[in-house]
Structures are given as C-alpha cells and as structure tokens.
Design brief:
Oligomer: single chain
Largest sheet: 6 strands, mixed
Strand content: 25-35%
Number of domains: 2
Strand order of the largest sheet: 8-7-9-10-12-11
Length: about 210
Amino acid sequence: MKYEITILSVKDSEKPNTMSVLRTNMRGLTQTASVAKERADLLQPHIGKTMSLDDFFDLLNEPIIEGGPRNLSMAGSAVEEKRRILIVDDDRDSTHLTQILLEKTGRYLVLEESDATKAHQSARNFKPDLILLDIMMPQRDGGDIAAQIEADPGLQRTPILFLTALVTKDEAKAGLRIQGHPVLAKPINIPELINEIEENLPARVTPEGAER
C-alpha cells in the first residue's frame, strides 16, 4: 500500500524561521507541519499535487547548499552519514510504515526486505549497521537467518534486533534475549524502537580511528 498526501499550501508560520505546510492524506484528514524556511522553495512547486509520503520526506531531507537546493544524486556524503538499517519482515505494510517513520527522523537510511529467503543477500549488498529481524515468516525462520548472518565473516558483527509477537512487552522490557539478541514485542512502538536501535548501534569510527 502506498501512502499518499496532497500539499495544499505553504505559508509563513508564527514560529521564527519556519513555514507552515498544510497537507491532506488519503483519508481526507488535514494536517499541518512546520518546516524550515529554506525548504519552502522545494515544496512550492508541489502545491496542489499528490505525492507519496516517501517523496514528501525526501524533499524535506534534501541537503541545502548556498545558492539553493542540490539534487539528491549529489548528496552522497550526506546520505552515507546516516546509519543503515535493514528490516526483514514479511508484513509489507507495517514494514513500509516503519521505514517511513525511521527515515523521517533524518538519522537512518532504511532498506526493506519482505522475502526472508533473500535476507542474507540483501544484508551482504546493503551492509547495514543494524538489522531488524522478524522471527515468524513463511519462507524462513528469523532464527535461521540470524545464524546465517552470524556465520558470515562480513556480517557477523552486525547487531540484530528481533521483532516478534511471540513475546509480551513485559518480557521484552525485562531484557529477554533470543539467540543472544535483544527483542522487541509487536506491535512496535516507534519511540521504543528508536531507543533500542540507538542502544544497539555500533559506535562510529572516525577517519582518525576514534569511536564516537
């Protein structure tokens, strides 16, 4: 399912250095969002147009340089600064929404993989900083995928966070681990998910070799 919105207007906001964006979603609900003034030029041409929520957030996250916005294809270094998250889950709708909400924070670059049989190869290609892994999937069990990733020299240090409805939220909060990996109970609470991601992400290594 593709989540779409229509931008109705972009106006001055009461808050300093911000603009007020009025948009409506697929259900006809109208929402207002505050964005930085330098984004106004990016949004103005799209007033009255319908776009996917992904494209809307792409516009808001597009890097700005002196003289105006630059094309996303020129923003490689900015994209590389984001932590790479791979989500392996056969529930495409909830996974896509999770991707949108995580990328909305501006911290992450997220790849979805709904085919469990392709999870290992997707991880090898994407080289994630962390993997969110469902346990119960029709094609393949998440525990088997975790074992395969742990056996891969190029991926074995990648943190894995299991997502499952097999445990309660109280059990997950009590520190339950499966195959040595932390667990979050479904349905997922996005703030809790972000907290778990940040706690389990490996430290960044600077060019000088220092962790940060």
